[in-house]
Specification:
2 copies of one chain form a homodimer. Chain A is of the alpha+beta class. The first copy, chain A, is built from 3 helices and 4 strands. Chain A has one domain: Alpha-Beta Plaits (2-Layer Sandwich). In chain A, a hairpin with a 4-residue loop joins strand 2 and strand 3. Chain A is globular and about 35 Å long.
Chain lengths: 99, 99
């Protein structure tokens, strides 16, 4: 498994309005090669959003980082930060990792 | 629920060696007020590590950010990045959010 962390400046919409605006995008993400899950993150106070993703492997993670970074840039979003990580499963199991 | 994202430059240990070195810290994190879970992240190639945490509320998240940032600084770690987010549960459910 390879974890991907995205965050970027974001001015809204938030909450249920965001959910309505992004539902089609969310459904399309389920079809991405190697995609396992995404937690959608948002913070109105600091004006940021992003996501934590799990992919089956690094090739899938890197392909998604390239695709999603280009899509966000098309939306006019700058200051995008995307990182890929392994998960330390031994430590994460101690700390009740979900799933 | 409030999600916390930490990442910072990290030169090791990684993998099972990291798990042995950090087991006591992991167990102590389970005792933090409002703590729900942590996914431990590491990337040997880029020399980074961090974690994705869930807390019950923002007060618990902010208290942990302050405590853990100070602890990492004591370890000599600089370039620490810590962000707190809400989770968009409607979108995350579409994308198979674990837990």
């Amino acid at each position: 498994m390879r974890l991907v962390q995205f965050d970027f400046p974001y001015s809204g919409p938030f909450g249920e309005e965001m959910a309505r605006a992004m539902e089609g995008l969310a459904r399309s993400i389920n079809e991405e090669p190697g995609f396992l899950w995404k937690i959608w993150t948002e913070d109105r106070a600091s004006g940021r959003a992003g996501g934590i993703y799990a992919f089956t492997d690094d090739a899938a993670a890197q392909a998604y980082i390239a695709k999603h970074s280009a899509r966000l840039a098309e939306f006019g979003i700058t200051g995008i930060r995307a990182l890929a990580f392994d998960v330390n499963e031994t430590l994460s199991r101690i700390n009740n990792m979900p799933g």
